[in-house]
TrEMBL record:
It is found in: Cell membrane. Residues 98-292 form the ABC transmembrane type-1 domain. GO terms for biological process: transmembrane transport. PANTHER family: D,D-DIPEPTIDE TRANSPORT SYSTEM PERMEASE PROTEIN DDPC-RELATED, OLIGOPEPTIDE TRANSPORT SYSTEM PERMEASE PROTEIN APPC. Its main location: membrane. It comes from the Bacteria. Gene3D superfamilies: MetI-like. This is ABC transporter permease. The chain crosses the membrane at residues 32-54, 100-128, 140-158, 164-183, 214-236, 272-292. Belongs to the binding-protein-dependent transport system permease family.
Length: 305
């Protein structure tokens, strides 16, 4: 931009965009990431609106009631996705199952990110004995037999605590090690910068330095990791529920619905019982991964603007 003065034209420097504005523009230009974002938004919206939509989509809106006279009906005009072996509408259970699978994934991801960020930032900032102690504990968590612990804990607490929240807590408490290591490595590199050393020299409390100075500079890494973790934890819930050790059977989830594929007659002759949740999981995981890759590229300052 130029302005005319008595001494001629003076060029004004253009205002530079913030890193977040640049990242937003790069993400919006990523067509695959944007399509995935729209798809995931539709899946979340349909799942949240399941109680409202169910009466309009099926004559059997009840997701738990057994209907003996309507067992194993193939898809038709009345039942868009057919019914299962208990006479329950597959479409209705698919919508409600999405709520549970997404809830487990999102809640467990929140626990993982919070614990991993706290442990990683404290270990990276203080270093020394604190770092060594926290990283050895992290190694223990990473090497813990995840599947065995989930099965044992669900068996012990069955009927005592809501199985859904037991699953969320167990997944969250056993999955934060990777995030802690990544955050620690980023904090270790950021800790040597002059602004952090200046804050330490004037006696700024460690908690304030971590929250105000260090975490904002590793936030982009945490966001990308959280997105990719969301997908992997949905897969974890699906796998555990498929094996019978995840979400309680009476609560519909995509993993519980896939469990019908354990029966040969259903797997070969009644694909409408397991194909919808299989496709829902597949496309949801793909969309989340594409979003994560889009965020990773957008938040990378070395990528092309």
């Amino acid at each position: 931009m130029t302005t005319n003065t008595a001494y001629g034209a003076v060029k004004r420097p253009e205002k530079s965009s913030s890193p977040w504005a640049i990242a937003r523009r790069k993400f919006l230009r990523n067509k695959l990431a944007m399509i995935s974002t729209v798809f995931l938004g539709i899946v979340i919206l349909l799942s949240l609106l399941a109680p409202v939509l169910a009466p309009y989509l099926s004559p059997i809106p009840d997701i738990t009631k057994v209907n003996i006279g309507k067992m194993s009906i193939p898809p038709n005009d009345e039942y868009l996705l057919g019914t299962d072996k208990s006479g329950r509408d597959v479409m209705t259970r698919l919508l409600y199952g999405g709520r549970i699978s997404l809830l487990v994934g999102a809640s467990a991801t929140a626990i993982v990110v919070i614990l991993g960020t706290i442990v990683g930032s404290v270990a990276g900032f203080f270093g020394g004995a604190v770092d060594s102690l926290l990283m050895r504990f992290t190694d223990f968590v990473l090497n813990f037999p995840f599947l065995v612990f989930v099965i044992v804990l669900n068996t012990i607490l069955y009927g005592i605590v809501d199985g859904l929240w037991v699953l969320i807590l167990v997944i969250g408490l056993l999955s934060w090690g990777g995030v802690a290591r990544i955050v620690r490595s980023k904090v270790l590199s950021e800790r040597e910068n002059e602004y952090v050393l200046a804050a330490i020299s004037i006696g700024t409390p460690p908690a304030k330095i971590i929250i105000k100075h260090l975490l904002p500079n590793v936030l982009s890494t945490i966001i990308v990791q959280a997105t990719l973790l969301f997908a992997s934890l949905i897969v974890a819930e699906t796998g555990l529920s498929y094996l019978g050790f995840g979400v309680p059977e009476e609560t519909p989830s995509w993993g519980n619905m896939l469990a019908f594929a354990n029966e040969p007659d259903v797997l070969q002759g009644k694909p409408w019982m397991w194909m919808p949740p299989a496709l829902a999981v597949t496309f949801t995981i793909l969309s989340i991964n594409f979003i994560g890759e889009g965020l990773k590229d957008a938040l990378n300052p070395k990528s092309q603007r």
